[in-house]
Amino acid sequence: MFRGSMVAIVTPMTMDGSIDEQALEALVGFHIENGTDAIVAVGTTGESATLSHAEHRHVVKRVVDVVSGQIPVIAGTGSNNTTEAVELSQAAMQDGADAVLLVTPYYNKPTQEGLFQHYKLLAESVALPQILYNVPGRTACDLLPETVQRLSHISNIVGIKDATGSVERAVDIIERCGDSMEVYSGEDPATLEIMLAGGKGTISVTSNVAPKLMHEMCMAALAGNREEATRLNDLLIPLHKALFLEPNPTAAKWAVHKMGFGSEGIRLPMLPLSEEFRPEVLEAMRIAGVNVDDFHSN
Question: Which domain holds residue 12?
């Protein structure tokens, strides 16, 4: 249903932590112009954990309005509170999102049956296409392949963002679920191999900074052109690494700021990127063809 390079877009902020409306609109336009295949609004990279419900809904609706149907908009609406996830997903549907991305319930440590019932209720409560999101490194919760397979039989659960970083895990899900569940990489360094193994795309941090190159790499991978996809991915590898020198979205927000989209503002408990890592991020941007000298930033 959704294919290619889907950006987990940052939420630009001023230095006092307010949402920068102008920068958000400009950033969305930049992605449309540079081939991004879908925008994920208010995911983890969008600082969903520190946005109020009103801000969360506002950002989703603003992205939907700016995109104006040109590419899909997927709203991050997951929560460790099932009722809250239902409410956020219903709001996203009302505000025009094309799908929702649902992170596993963090902190609670539910059983596999608890996860199944959580997602089943969400699917029954909200008619939008739903994408599961498994990122055990952040949530202390692992959605196992056999549970994904059970969920794949629910018609509006259409995909999974696998951020385990394991190509083997992604392949296991692809083999178990076939056409009933599309698999998307949630770890940029694993994207190439996951897509060549049958994954349909990526929900990416790197595409915040190099959207055109990520799109081109994904298209080559979808076409089964390993040589070209590898050539393009080689240009992205330093950026995949540099954007995680500190916990996401720290480096991505700083890089987007250097590209001219708002300040380096980020909400506590996160801080702007440490000075020591900035040269490495800049060099990785240049290798990927992002010339920060072309942007009006300081």
Answer: 4-223
Out of 106, 107, 120, 133, the active site residue is 133
SS3 content of the chain, % helix, strand, coil (to 5): 50, 15, 35
| Cα–Cα distance measured from residue 91 to residue 85, given in angstroms and rounded to the nearest whole number | 10
Q: Round to whole Å and give the CA distance between 41 and 43.
A: 6
d(CA 166, CA 172): 10
Q: How far apart are CA 143 and CA 113, in angstroms?
A: 10
Domain with 9 in it: what CATH number? 3.20.20.70
Exactly one of 61, 119, 120, 161 is catalytic; which is it?
A: 161
From CA 199, how far away is CA 126, in angstroms rounded? 25
pTM, two decimals, is: 0.96
Half-sphere exposure (CA, 13 Å, Cβ side) for 200? 18
**10 vs 249: CA distance, rounded Å:** 7
Residue with tokens 């630009």: 12
Residues 6+ apart with CB under 8 A from 41: 9, 59, 60, 63, 64, 73, 74, 75, 76, 97
Q: Over the stretch 150-176, which tens digit does the pLDDT of each residue have? A: 999 999 999 999 999 999 999 999 999
Q: Give the distance from CA 30 to its chain's centroid.
A: 16
CB 243 within 8 A of CB 30: no
Q: Is 258 a catalytic residue?
A: no
The pLDDT tens digits of the residues spanning 28-44 come to 999 999 999 999 999 99
Q: 10 to each of 42, 268, 275, how far by Cα in Å?
A: 8, 15, 20
How many domains, the chain? Answer: 1
To the query of whether residue 212 is one of the catalytic residues in this protein, the response is no
- Evaluate whether residue 201 is within a structural domain: yes
